[in-house]
TrEMBL record:
Residues 126-224 bind DNA. This is DNA-binding response regulator. The modification 4-aspartylphosphate is found at D51. It comes from Pedobacter yulinensis. CDD domains: REC_OmpR_CusR-like, trans_reg_C.
Length: 230
């Protein structure tokens, strides 16, 4: 597995490089955003570990640029700020996961294993899921409703795919966190609710048939519900 680490703290770089090398990973390092972006676009990596605060070009800008040209590479964002706003900003830029500094190396290792499992998961080519005019293509990872394309971030797409593969089931916030992000989040954040609202605006607003429903005290359910069903 080839990993690009874009990080400007020498001490952290040393620990991460030593630890990941011992685990058998091939590590390349960039100490600023511009160099990291150049390396990410010129070479093939399986995973990019990207710090939020970088000299030259910040991690959000780097992440957006990488994502505009490469939708497949995994991106793990490192941030010293663990607020919901900062987490969502990183995920919206195209990151697949985040890790708050300071962290233990075992936490980083767990996130990398998690992302590796998620990114290596394959779907049957051409397979699709559909409900009430909403359709997602599991190969191209795109979504449409009534033929109209819906622009989704990587996180929004994973959330929608999880809902569509679990139609008519009540899903708790913990289940959603474990399956969409594939790791335990700090339950003090409201990341799930934030992304549910994002998704509702994109797939439900303007359509008479709503698909995402709150089950108070339990979580959410994804099902077709016409106005007279309410």
């Amino acid at each position: 597995m080839k990993i690009l680490l874009i990080e400007d703290e020498p001490g952290l770089v040393s620990v991460v490089v030593r630890g990941l090398t011992e685990l058998g990973f091939e590590i390349s390092v960039a100490a600023d955003g511009l160099t990291g972006l150049d390396m990410a676009l010129k070479h093939r990596f399986d995973l990019i570990i990207l710090d939020l605060m970088l000299p030259g070009m910040n991690g959000i800008a780097v992440c957006k640029e990488i994502r505009s040209q490469n939708t497949q590479v995994g991106i793990l964002m490192l941030t010293a700020l663990g607020t919901t706003e900062n987490i969502v900003t990183g995920l919206d830029a195209g990151a697949d996961d985040y890790l708050v500094k300071p962290f233990k190396f075992t936490e980083l290792e767990a996130r990398i294993r998690s992302l590796s499992r998620r990114l290596s998961g394959t779907q049957k080519p051409g397979s699709k899921l559909a409900l009430a005019g909403l359709e997602i293509d599991l190969e191209s990872k795109t979504a449409r409703r009534n033929g109209k394309a819906i622009a989704l971030t990587a996180t929004e797409y994973r959330l929608l795919e999880y809902f569509m593969t679990n139609q008519n089931k009540v899903l708790s916030r913990i289940e959603i966190l474990e399956n969409v992000w594939d790791i335990d989040f700090n339950m003090g954040t409201n990341v799930v609710d934030v992304y549910i609202n994002y998704l509702r605006k994109k797939i439900d607003n303007g359509y008479p048939v709503k698909l995402i429903h709150t089950v108070f005290g339990m979580g959410y359910i994804f099902k077709e519900e016409k106005p007279d069903d309410v």
